[in-house]
Amino acid sequence: MGTQSRVAGFASAEELKALTPRHRLCVCGRMNLVVVVGRDRPDLRWRKNGKKATCVLSEILKDFYAKADWSLFMSVTYLWKIGVGLFILNYKRCLGGEGLRCLELFSEVIIGMSDLKKGRAQVPQMTWFILFHGALSEPHNGRSGHVHGSKCSQFSQVYTIANNPTNNSPTSITWNPEVGEQVGNLFLSLSNHSNPEVSCFSQKGFSQITEEIIGRTIHAICLKSLVRLKVFQTNTLINMYSKFGRINYAQLVFDRMSERNEASWNHMMSGYVRVGSYVEAVLFFRDICGIGIKPSGFMIASLVTACNKSSIMAKEGTSFVHFYASYGIVSNAQKMFNEMPDRNVVSWTSLMVSYSDNGSKKEVINTYKRMRLEGICCNENNIALVISSCGFLVDIILGRQLLGHALKFGLETKVSAANSLVFMFGGCGDVDEACSIFNEMNERDTISWNSIISANAQNALHEESFRYFHWMRLVHEEMNYTTLSILLSICGSVDYLKWGKGVHGLAVKYGLESNICLCNTLLSMYSDAGRSKDAELIFRRMPERDLVSWNSMLACYVQDGRCLCALKVFAEMLWMKKEINYVTFTSALAACLDPEFFTEGKILHGFVVVLGLQDELIIGNTLITFYGKCQKMSEAKKLFQRMPKLDKVTWNALIGGFANNAELNEAVAAFKLMREGGTCGVDYITIVNILGSCLTREDLIKYGIPIHAHTVVTGFDLDQHVQSSLITMYAKCGDLQSSSYIFDQLVFKTSSVWNAIIAANARYGFGEEALKLVVRMRSAGIEFDQFNFSTSLSVAADLAMLEEGQQLHGSTIKLGFELDHFITNAAMDMYGKCGELDDALRILPQPTDRSRLSWNTMISIFARHGHFRKAKETFHEMLKLGVKPNHVSFVCLLSACNHGGLVEEGLAYYASMTSEYGIQPGIEHCVCMIDLLGRSGRLVEAEAFITDMPIPPNDLVWRSLLASCRIYRNLDLGRKAAKHLLELDPSDDSAYVLYSNVFATIGRWADVEDVRGQMGAHRIQKKPAHSWVKWKGNISIFGMGDQTHPQMEQINGKLLGLMKIVGEAGYVPDTSYSLQDTDEEQKEHNMWSHSERIALAFGLINIPEGTTVRIFKNLRVCGDCHSFFKFVSGVLGRKIVLRDPYRFHHFTNGDCSCSDYW
């Protein structure tokens, strides 16, 4: 079957399977023209046929993976070069799971190469951009016509762009669709030629030609046919003529090229060297430098060969030492230096400069020693250079010896030498000596001031650094970007951020804000201070960016939790063909430490293998962490076993992965192996990981306590991180008493230790004790950080203590933490749980600035306050902005549906959670669904749901079903739910109460007494109901029928008055909520003594009109009290907010925000 006939059509899956690999590649390559269709309105043709093509690609990969056929792999790699545009599309919308699987499968193939040891795949960077961009499933404003065209919604637009005759820069994606019909026929005739050297011309150019006559013939045919060769074909033609010694022909072809790339220059340069024209090669190289082209490593290698085989070196020795040093070829600089017949102090200094510029500080010192042994006296320049090297090496002893040399030769007064001495002593920690030398200097320049400012900054004397800077400005010494960069480097903390902003203002004032080094320091400063938006603004306004800029922005997004933004920056680097190093990959992989970004991380792993960085220790460690965080410990173990070298970080990453995945036995086994190996010592991170994996009392006894003993023996118990982990471990395992004991025994308590004990008390419901600890912490003078504030705000939220929460929020603003997204979300949650919805919305970030945590918090707040439609709208707005929901998002969303009685919508969201987003249901999702079905009366469906649950039901599941059975008086199902609930926890008081309430609702009082008798027999007491009101810093707590409050007489009088006015307004008590076997009058009296009614009366007496009355209850409000509150709000015109453990009820003008469904 001819490939030309398939240019504008699809091959069926069956046809593709029948083709040979080479023909299959051709067809798939041509198919590239029609499969890259729009993201917003995918072509129906793609939906029908594109998936077939994807399946075929997947089958090819599977064949390779199963057979490990290297030749087939090369075909697959080439296939991805020409057909990878398939994956620009949103695979979840158009391809379903198959497209996603193809992405993962290709990455698996690349990663598998490291096992096959067959070599390295040559996958172009643009290919990786498209793979990665497809995984992100987000639009991108590219510059390539073909990639831009792939975003069009119509196939015709793509086809037009691909066949545009003005497009003379075909890429590996478009293959050769721009070749016209005449060229296509010529290439087709060549590809059908019997000679294999000719038949592969269209793909490999002249690179496979072994006979000069064949190459010249093909060249002549192309000239005769007026065929315009591609750049890569012309490059191979230059290489062919050079290979056959026809350098003049090669030069002629080169001169006539209308467009050249790096390979063009490389081939011409190597051609001169190949034919022995070394002088011409050097002159050609000078021409390259003269027109501003940066020489490649290949050109440098050719130049070295030319120079070594000519006499040029001997004539210009020192200049060539400089030249080699400027391109990092230190070995050749050394060789050139050794061959020089005459060497003077300038030559020695040039060699020392070459070592210094390339980071070989020890060689600088060794060269200086050799120079002195040969009797060459030092001068101002080389003594300054060698002293600075001592500063980098932190060798103060040698530095003092060199100070003696400077004194001997009278160089200590020279500005450059004195500057180096200041730098050296500052770097070695002797700031006093550095200041003494600086103060004695008769002459100072900008470098002098920079050195003394840097000396203080390096030793954390930040105020002194700014004092010298102020002195510098007083004497009118000119500052430069280095001065400001040093100052900015110490302003990354919140305490010094204002100073940093001032320095930033000076940079703008003096026109230094465009300096790339200064901009990079600004990026780091704002990033370290948690100001990612400011860092982003700096980054986007930079006139030019280097690798440090990109890596800094990438790390900033990761540090701020904006992982999707980080991955988009990485995709942008690929798109713009920016340099990438191991630091880039480390940050990019750190953005994938969540299971939802597993595909992106897997593609990054493949990219690492392609670039040959898989053996870099830091990348291997990050990959192990990535697989551990994504719950793929089998992959992490494989990678660990393949790593050629292991260090402490490697072991910690593996142990941490086991701990995060609750594989305690595996974590302890790895810990033992690490200790037995002896090559990598245990550190505090190892201990913290092991302690963090102990979650139950059994874990505590078996592993936790022995590890604690180990920390005491080895001294790790003195480390603050280990102390915090010990407190947290005992609390998680149910031993809060031991946590408190460890805390009390500590003499010096750090911020992290305070945070651990506060969180431990909050976890066990001791919120008041947690807030007391917060007060103690502040009294002790401990500086609060983001974690302390977040924990404290969460405690205030759980206790609904609005005033304390407002004070804490005010402190965060005062200390400059208002933009920290963790604190912002904690403050939003606090305002939401305290009933202040408007305040929560007031501090809500702009949609484009919101993290997923912010979206989840808002959905939860809307659900809790009865704004179900807003909760749904917030969820869909989050999706539109490209934020992927996680399991917490769906817990909040299903909770909103539950509170609003939106059964069908809840069922639809639950189904989409797995089908569309790949999120497996957790126990929280299942409880929401059972409660939703049960409270809507669909008890049979609720029971069936429990039967089909993917995870075993727990006490929350059966308790929810039992509560619904009470509402709808379903005794049989209620008996079954109570049985399961009591089997799980025989001491659960709520199980007995709910079970007795089921009997009470149908009037079976004997059974009620029987259940209560069982509670007494088991010595189980019902949790008493109580409500409370906070006013003017005091909390008034009321129990059912409570008569102990000092204002009880007024409260009773107020209740009688309320009973009268609401009765006149139409209120009729619903005695079905009185679950006692008494007469109607007594039932009414009992309901009037409910704690929430007493609290309401107290609030109406003490809280002035116009102020909202806020009441909190520890149990669910009863239905009759709910009706009573509605009538009171309508009759008195008062706003009342009642919060129970399930939700907020906002009563206004006789209505409730819950619409009587709760």
TrEMBL record:
Q: Give the GO biological process terms.
A: RNA modification
Keyword match Repeat: yes
Q: Where are the PPR repeats?
A: 261-295, 344-378, 515-549, 647-681, 750-784, 851-885
**Molecular functions (GO terms):** RNA binding; zinc ion binding
Q: Pfam families recorded for this chain?
A: DYW_deaminase (PF14432), E_motif (PF20431), PPR (PF01535), PPR_2 (PF13041)
Q: Where is the DYW domain?
A: 1066-1158
Alphabetic keyword roster:
Repeat
- What family, per the record? Belongs to the PPR family. PCMP-H subfamily.
Q: Which NCBIfam families does the record cross-reference, listed alphabetically?
A: PPR
What name is this protein filed under? Pentatricopeptide repeat-containing protein
Record the organism: Cucumis melo var. makuwa
